[in-house]
Amino acid sequence: MELPVFSEPTSIEKELPFSLRGAGHNYLQREVSRPFGFPVYQLLLCRKNSGVITIKGAETTISPGQAVVLFPEEPHRYTPSDQQWIISWVSFQGFQLADLFFKMQVKGSGVYHVTDPEYLDSRIAYAAQLLSQPSVEHRLEGSALVYSLILSCYHQLHQVRNPLDQMLPSNLEPALHIIMNEYHRSISLDELANACDISPQHFIRLFKSAFQAKPTEYINSIRISKSK
Fold it and tell me: In 62-113, which residue ranges form alpha helices assigned H by DSSP?
């Protein structure tokens, strides 16, 4: 079994819309009771055997291929049903998350069926890898990974699916990858739009809908954070 990795937010991460806080891949889960909830968001993916999660007094069995989304400060408890309950989990925070989940019509903690658990598990494993190498570059990549994880949840968690693709466009990921990894150089609007295979005008609309900021404003905020 792999040990979990935790991280305190840096000054740079506090200014990012999303940031990783912790991750555990193929983790042997014990009983956890949090009457006052957890301070940040969590995503738990059941990998082997089963457990029972109680959210606001309601019990649900979690089996392989299912995931749990836990909102901050919502009381919950999870308990193994089997001696070897294996999960992968990731915790994250950010000032854009509440609005992003609202657009997905996810208003609180819940249990969901996952379409492709292997892919989601690989993203959580990568989160643990990034957290174990806490350079500035890895922290910025972690921010992009949280966004990617949320999009994965949007497309893979059955109860989350709804006709909001215009509001949560997965084709923004290539542009976000460029911004997070090449913010130090000049990045044109045309380059970002071409990476997403859409027109510059459409790209601006989608980007502002997802981040409540123009692409140039967002890039500048990343550069300012990096310079501190």
Answer: 97-103
